[in-house]
Amino acid sequence: MTGSTAVLDARGVTKRFGGLTAVRDVDFTVGEGEIVGLIGPNGAGKTTFFNCLTGLYEPTAGEVRYRGRRLPSRPHDVTRAGVARTFQNIRLFPNMTVLENVMVGRHCRLREGLLSAIGRGPRYRRAEAEAEGTARELLEFAGIGRLAGSLARNLPYGDQRRLEIARALASDPGLLLLDEPTAGMNPQETERTRELVLAIRDRGLAVVVIEHDMRFIFGLCDRVAVLNQGEKLVEGPPSDVQSDERVIAAYIGGAPDDDEPEEA
Ligand SMILES: Nc1ncnc2c1ncn2[C@@H]1O[C@H](COP(=O)(O)OP(=O)(O)OP(=O)(O)O)[C@@H](O)[C@H]1O
Ligand SMILES: [Mg+2]
Q1: At residue 39, does pLDDT exceed 50?
Q2: Strand ranges (DSSP E) for 32-82?
Q3: Domain 1-82+175-181+206-259 has CATH 3.40.50.300
Q4: CATH 1.10.530.10 for the 90-172 domain, yes or no
Q5: Of 2, 124, 135, 206, which has fewest CB within 10 angstroms of its CB?
């Protein structure tokens, strides 16, 4: 990564909620075409960190750059800048169709303003047709093209997660943040999600993925960062992180520093 601008460069990101520091002084970078895992026990601050990257929360301290530029502070502007995400608790429009959900994701790229939307002029119709074409292509890509006309709320859980990914891709991001994309999936669905993330990287995107499924993380990611009690504990290639005793201790409970010294 040296010499080129990082896709994402977060420095000293801190988020406090009153007396609780949910994220503490985290440095985190993502290079071109990288798939980076972000893991850690429940409550470690993973989702809060994503929220700080995407404008849902304003970090208490720190700075976030996307391709060298400071990210704007509002979620819509972050998406427009090129950072898209999915949510741990799926956020779809349940009473819209699958296709419509993806077309909504495209809106930040449509240049047509309010006036032509009201007038429904030819320019609006052309933009709408283009958005629909892109949305259908993305649904095929995500493996749910056959469901385009279904209501989002009628989709099985795994397909809802894939729909969220398709919708995020509709904003044409350079960086995709996935918050627990395989939660609730069976092993077959998890494997298809792994293949989907690899295909997303092949489209030229960088990806950060939060997951509790360690097999999924260590089999997919180029690099893994571990958060524990808001702080970055370890970062490195999957093989190193997997066997790091600080990581194992964090999952078993309590930071390694808190442990009683071992008997010799
Ligand atoms: N809006 C908020 N107000 C107050 N505290 C919050 C808020 N959001 C998160 N927290 C707290 O911040 C800490 C980190 O939460 P976060 O959801 O980021 O953890 P996580 O690593 O995503 O956990 P999980 O694996 O369970 O999803 C927790 O103690 C949580 O209760
Ligand atoms: Mg979370």
Answers
A1: yes
A2: 35-39, 61-66, 69-70
A3: yes
A4: no
A5: 2
Residue nearest to atom 17 of ligand 1 (CA): 47
Q: For ligand 2, an ion, list residues with CB under 5 A.
A: 46-47, 88
Residue 41 near residue 58, CB atoms below 8 Å: no
Cross-strand partners of 65: 9, 70
pLDDT digits (tens, 9 = 90+) for 68-91: 999 999 999 999 999 999 999 999
Whether the pLDDT of residue 112 is over 60: the answer is: no
The domain limits of the chain are 1-82+175-181+206-259, 90-172
Residue nearest atom 12 in ligand 1 by C-alpha distance: 22
Asked, colleague to colleague, whether 1-82+175-181+206-259 and 90-172 share their fold, the answer is yes
Indicate if ligand 1 lies below 6 Å from the C-beta of 58. Answer: no
Other Cβ atoms closer than 10 A to 261: 5
The CB of 42 under 6 Å from ligand 1? The reply is yes
CA of 180, closest atom in ligand 1: 27
Give 220-234 pLDDT, tens digit per residue: 999 999 999 999 999
Tokens of residue 30, six digits: 């993502």
